[in-house]
Amino acid sequence: MSTAVYPSPREGALPFTAAVLGTVVALLALPVTLLAGAPVEGWLLGFGLWIGNWTVHLLAKRAAERAPATTAVGISGISLMGRAWLVAIVLFVFALRVSEPIALTAAIVFLAAFTFDLTGRMLLHGMKTDGTRPSAGTTTDS
């Protein structure tokens, strides 16, 4: 695998699919949302939160890869907790001020994407073929 944050499709279908599994699940949640009769706005909010979360994760991961081990752990931990709190606050405020059904749908979409992204990254971690074990500075947060 390359030193990129996530593998490209040229590095194999399985590693690439594992890397983007959360986003694939978020996209597949649209027809499920429509079939369930849930508000499409909830899917849009959940998908938007997911893409924002994933983007910040990629930026934090890139910064952590260039940092010393202890700094990388701090970046990863602060990023993980900060993103979790931010999403929770956005959904809570949205439920109170705008619409509970939309916020609930968004939460379900986001949690499904998050869960499958975490699963995909665990698979990616297991697919490392360079024969090395992760060092103390290696991070796998969401």
How would you characterize this protein structure?
With 142 residues, the chain is mostly helical. The protein has one domain (10-126). The chain is 74% helix and 0% strand. The protein contains 5 helices and no strands. It has helices at 13-19, 21-36, 40-65, 69-97, 100-126. Helix 1 runs antiparallel to helix 5 (100-126). The model has no long low-confidence stretch (mean pLDDT 85).
Topology:
Blueprint: H1 13-19, H2 21-36, H3 40-65, H4 69-97, H5 100-126
Helix pairs in contact: 1-5, 2-3, 2-5, 3-4, 3-5, 4-5
Brief write-up:
This protein has five helices and no strands. With 142 residues, the protein is mostly helical.
Number of domains: 1
Q: Strand share of the residues?
A: under 5%
Largest sheet: none
Q: Pick out the low-confidence regions.
A: none
Series of secondary-structure elements, N-terminal to C-terminal: HHHHH
List keywords for this structure.
142 residues; flat; 5 helices; mainly alpha; 0% strand
